[in-house]
Queue: 2 jobs
Job 1
Amino acid sequence: MSIFLDHNATTPLDPQVLDAMLPWLRGVHGNPASVHRYGREAQVAMESARRQVAALVNAEPAQVIFTGGGTEADNLALRGVCHAKPHGRLLVSAIEHAAIQETAEALAKDGWQVERIPVDSECRMDLRALQTLLGEDARLVSVMAANNETGAIQDLHAAAELVHARGALLHTDAIQAAGKMPLDFSALGVNLLTLSAHKLNGPRGVGALIRDRRVDLAPQITGGGQEQGLRGGTEDLAGIVGFGAAAECARSEMQTRAERLRALRERLEAGLERLPGARIFARHAERLPNTVQFGVAGYDGGWLVMELDRRGIAVSSGSACHSSSGKPSHVLLAMGLDETTARSAVRVSLGMDNSADDVDALLTALTAITAKRRGAVALA
């Protein structure tokens, strides 16, 4: 048995995406910056992909800056704004991915005052706290669209109103949300939005920053002037074409995928409610249709992950970037949970290839693992 239930870490490449990429991996080899026919063909393919990515979030193609992944896009957003402005205050939510948290910490060493926006027990940003933290010297606020561990969706509309009233800019890391829920760049009111191809069945190593073109950014990779002078280096054309194809598939199939994933999530949660000691985190928040994070009282999440892996089922104990750190989830700690409960966390993130049988197999395995452990304790 082999069941993959860790799609928030990465997703398998969609066969349609691979088909779109293959010509650019095999025979066609023009550089988009070249003026000859091969270069022009490459440029046309890249701009077609730019339109596809823009359409996913209802942006203009000229607002799309391709990068070498979501982490680079997050860095370009934060460092790009902060290096283009005088020092001030940078606000980030307490549940951000490491790409935001660690970049903010680096900017703090450069003289920026960094403050964390707290969340409630359901992993929802505290808007009153945000309003209190905002001041005249707040330059940039970063709030993810949906949390990668709990799946909790944040109220970006309300945040944008507060942030813009104080003259600050708003960035959102929408990497987990994209393709799973509708995103409208202009309607959300954000100034910057980051995406990653491999989270929506595209290739690894390519991402994008969507930018309000009125926002000044300092480039973080210079040389060559590509991507409006904001990201130097020859573009990964095959990856970008794949990103475009994945964005198009995600946009056209979003509602169908979301309905199917939500049904699987509800099936999983119904089963977890029957599992002794199980607790679903952020249970009452609006969440992504594919994500469930839970804990089982008395069990370490990392141990459960390994026991499930022995049975051919891949899940995680939280963000893939920190899964081997041994530290409890900073997201769950920010929600007010104690360290023991936070260490119990297991994240299941469903994908388009998963089925009801996969969910049932996971529930059966969890029941067997926990029953065996309880039986061993009783015998002792």
Job 2
Amino acid sequence: MSAAPDVSIVIPVYNEEGILREAVTELLDGLASVRAALGEPGLGFEIVLAENGSRDRTAELAQHLADEREEIRTFSLGEPNYGKALRRGILEARGKYVICEEIDLCDLDFHRRALEHLRHADCEMVVGSKAMKGASDERPLLRRAATKVINGMLRAALDFRGTDTHGLKAFHRETLLPVVEACVIDRDLFASELVIRAGRAGLHVLEIPIKLHEKRPPAINLVRRVPNVLRGLAKLTYVIRFGGKP
């Protein structure tokens, strides 16, 4: 195995055969600009493709990419579970810093800004917010509305004081590892639990605005996700508020 990288980019992937190769290739090529902007030409990156239950050729293509490029690693869960895949990817990451990405975003500007904050010890976690002042969210109206509803529910149930939890985030892996291991929710709300628990643990969570333009429609229908989100929110509220067992 090669030496541990400085940064691990963890990307859950599900039914992404149409954009996987192009997106990963563009991300790898674009990392040169991140190194240049940070003044670190030798900064090492790895990409961890966390495949979870795809019904198309995503798992096969991810393995082909890993065979072709030493910077890429992949694993397959065998079930469609975004949160479980993201959690395992974080646990398997080898970098000092971890960036949680989305295959249809690959926002290099977020990578640069987040790493600047983390390397200068401004915070322990950076969240890319699509809802704060200065952000630009070009998703359909229904998806933007769903984000507002979920954030409102998190504020009411768990005193969440930020503007976003799902999507792009970056953090010191060693510092956040106990928080990751304490999380009990998978699927859609793992990312929310991670951000909320980090804040409740007294860690400095910094939000920065992002420009969001997705490359394709979501892989899972929004309406189909609602029951899982509601169950996850009830479970998360019980565990955090009342110290119950999951």
